[in-house]
Amino acid sequence: MNRWHLLVMVLVVGLINAAISAWSGQPLDLAVIRNASLVAGLLGAAIVLFDRWGWRFAALHPWFVVLPRIRGDWAVAADIGPARARQASSFQGQIFIRQTYFSIWARIDWEDGAQMRFLMKAPIVASADGFCAFTAVYELDPNAAGAAPVTRRAGFFFHSAETHPDAVTLFYSTADNQVGRIRLSARKKMSLWRWLMPY
């Protein structure tokens, strides 16, 4: 479920409220419809504001928001390879994560010039014990002569008991049996403008 699903649900509640008012014998005039629309609009705006900015407030963690804030630019070190291989290949690079309460997007620039980026925002879920998971479709551009970009679907998960962790390890597995461990460290400090932006 994403914020658009919630907005539709709120609008449906407003319409149901107007229908109940009409069924109970109250005249269905412009004021009833206007009030229902106003309530639905305010709730919809509150959901959008919470998704983009409100969930970041430390006072809401962990009693109301259990999702850790991993948005930002990080240095990364990764071990990636086939699922049953005895040895994985190691890579260094930088990851750029854009995160809201309902979704996450990332791009990794590897030191060898390759780039891995999500093709769309991925819905993210979190449990009260700090486990988070999301499924994403990403494109790997190897940046090598004659090598075509590869598109993969992968499941990612990570765990953090902290609201704003200093280090995180992303584990993932792709549909073609590739697995990876991406360690995030040394997050750059955000400028005020970047802190205010949802992505």
Task: Note down, in words, how this protein is organized.
The structure is a single chain. With 199 residues, the chain is α+β, with helices and mostly antiparallel strands. It has helices spanning 3-23, 30-52, 192-196; strands spanning 72-82, 89-99, 103-110, 115-118, 122-126, 131-141, 150-159, 168-174, 178-185. Strand 3 and strand 4 form a beta hairpin. Helix 1 packs antiparallel against helix 2. The protein is elongated.
The main β sheet shows up as: 9 strands, antiparallel
The percentage helix is: 10-25%
Proportion of strand residues: 35-45%
What value does the average pLDDT take? 83
Helix segment count?
A: 3
Low-confidence stretches: none
- By helix and strand content, what is the structural category? alpha+beta
- Globular, elongated, flat, extended or rod-shaped: what is the shape? elongated
- The rounded Rg comes to 21 Å
Number of strands: 9
